[in-house]
Amino acid sequence: MKIEVNGNSLELMIGDITKQSTEAIVNAANGTLMGGGGVDGAIHQAAGSELVEECKKIREEDLDGNYLRTGKAVITQGYDLPAKFVIHTVGPVWDGNNQVASEQLEESYLNSLNLAKENGITSITFPSISTGVYRYPVQLASVIALHTIVEFLQNNRFGDVTMTLFSERDYQVYKKALKGVLEKI
Ligand code: ADP
């Protein structure tokens, strides 16, 4: 499913994000930035070990040794990935508190998009942040993700945004959510 928003495009697709050749891909990272399971592990595996080296440097030099906070985003090179850049963001862990988690999830998408724009990036693809190991219900997360992206595109000349979903089920949930978001604008 592909739509146009203010001269930008937004597309939902099914696929493996490590194979995408948008200028940037987004990683649903954890605060350590050292890799992990799920999409994070797949991205680190495909990018090669230079990625973790750059992440270590960011932790030491930019974050004073601290973890990347939930909702924040940082950018690295893509190394062996088809994508030139990886934007790493930490989504919220679902604990049943919809209010706090939804604000943090919105921040993850928005900070990633703003960081991409600041770096002159015009095409980006997102995974379904927080809906795997972090257990955020995909029906709720999809509405927040798409509402945030659509609003950003309404306010910016950006380019192309895609969501690379990992299953037919997720794709159908996001498709329904997008229809709902578009009805409200
Ligand atoms: P989180 O910890 O933020 O929940 P996960 O990696 O556990 O992150 O899951 C986020 C989403 O990414 C899930 O929908 C999962 O199915 C999906 N995913 C896992 N591997 C890939 C991949 N290679 N490409 C795209 N999506 C993926």
Write structural notes for this entry.
By secondary structure, this protein is of the alpha/beta class. Helix content is 43%, strand content 21%. The chain has 5 helices and 7 strands, in the order E-E-E-H-H-E-E-H-E-H-E-H. Strands 1-2-7-6-3-5-4 form a 7-stranded mixed β-sheet, with helices on both faces. Helix 4 (138-155) packs across helix 5 (168-183). The longest helix has 21 residues, at 98-118. It is globular and about 45 Å long. The protein starts with a strand and ends with a helix. The site of adenosine-5'-diphosphate (ADP) has 20 residues, from helix 1.
Describe the global form: globular
What is the distance, rounded to the nearest whole angstrom, between the alpha carbons of the first and last residues?
A: 18 Å
Given helix and strand content, the structural type is alpha/beta
Number of helices: 5
Q: Identify low-pLDDT runs.
A: none
Rg, Å, rounded: 15 Å
Mean pLDDT: 98
β-strand amount:
15-25%
Approximately how much helix is present in the residues? 40-55%
Bound molecules: adenosine-5'-diphosphate
Strand order within the widest beta sheet:
1-2-7-6-3-5-4
Order of helices and strands: EEEHHEEHEHEH
Largest sheet: 7 strands, mixed
Strand elements, count: 7
